[in-house]
Amino acid sequence: MKILFIHNTYQQRGGEDVIFENESELMESHGHSVERLLFDNHQIKTGLDKFLTGVKSLYNFESAKIVEAVIKNFSPDLIHVHNLFPIASPSILYVADKYKIPVVLSIHNYRLICPSATLLHTGKIYEKSIHSIFPLDAIVKGVYRGSKIQTASAVLMTGTHKLLGTWKNKVTRYIVMSQFAKNKFLDSSLNVAEEKWSIKPNFSPDMGVGDTARENSFLFIGRLTAEKGIETLLEAARITGFNLEILGDGPMREVVENYASQHQNIVYAGFKQKQEIIQALKKCKALLFPSVWYEGFPMTILEAFSVGTPVISSKLGAMVEMIEDQGNGLHVKPGDVEDLVEKMRLLTTQPDLARILGKNARCTYEDKYAPEKNYEQLLAIYLQVIEAKKQMKYEAV
User: Which InterPro entries does the entry mention (predicted)?
Assistant: First the structure.
């Protein structure tokens, strides 16, 4: 099978970039012919660049020409897009349709139904845009990067293509990572039929099982922002006095550093490379994941499962499906400090429970999130999509 992977990278590397790389490498490792086409947001530097990119996000003729040239040269059986905003633009979907090539579009965020992309605004869940084609409230509030202009640009792009039927007719199959996400998109202004949606989780390379005897310390890994539940995390550590190591960087770094300077049990280790992160995961008692927003399908949780580390996570969004309470981890109420304190104490006072949860976490990884499992799921989707496209051509004759 010949697969063209297309991705619009972000200026700050994130989970979507990792998933794009993982999936394209996975298919290549199984003998498929893979071509990768990247559109890079790093070229957006000046105010003029941002303005022109916003205008072109509706339909970028240059991007269309690039994709057309690759199609003519590579002749893919299928195109798998991971992100097309803002440079690639929906224009690439029209090129694929012109050449009758089926398109799979992985949905990593909620941009198609809300310009915020996260369903979060001012630190709270924001869902007012979901059922609106052109959500004015979102523009007024500037839910995308605090900018009314950039929000309006995102609304114009997604809304126009809803009216044109682009999302309904130019994408053969959508992939979402959870039932939660699928339900959100089905109950939205996107108006795409249910049979066009497939659920396939992300996967993680096998990082190897961690230490049997764990250190008496909890771990947080991630961007230091309010939506990650940083304040809840810090308060729980302060109240319990339990050791907490924090890896990452972000806008709340100063807050974290202040807590760390005042409380010896809190250690801020800053940003770390992947190898150091995995080593920390292999040693800790549990990973803390107190997010207060609808995370997509966090890679950090999959990596924790891979090394046999249980996760204490907010009972919210996809995390409800990933974490089995008292199975491979523990649920906590989003933003509830006392609940997080209780669960941290539970694992500290019941080491046998922590070990059982850790073993179950590893089993969850092997059953659901190992590369080979993901390959089987992805290949099945590809074959279905190619067959569906062939059937459409046959019916059109």
Answer: Glyco_trans_1, Glycosyltransferase_grp1
Domains along the chain with CATH numbers: 2-204+371-396 (3.40.50.2000), 217-369 (3.40.50.2000)
3-state secondary structure the chain: CEEEEEEEECCCCCHHHHHHHHHHHHHHHCCCEEEEEEEEHHHCCCHHHHHHHHHHCCCCHHHHHHHHHHHHHHCCCEEEEEECCCCCCCHHHHHHHHCCCCEEEECCCCCCCCCCCCCEECCEECCCCCCCCCCHHHHHHCCCCCCHHHHHHHHHHHHHHHHHCHHHHCCCEEEECCHHHHHHHHCCCCCCCHHHEEECCCCCCCCCCCCCCCCCEEEEECCCCHHHCHHHHHHHHHHHCCEEEEECCCCCHHHHHHHHHHCCCEEEEECCCHHHHHHHHHHCCEEEECCCCCCCCCHHHHHHHHCCCCEEEECCCCHHHHCCECCCEEEECCCCHHHHHHHHHHHHHCHHHHHHHHHHHHHHHHHHHCHHHHHHHHHHHHHHHHHHHHHHHHHHC
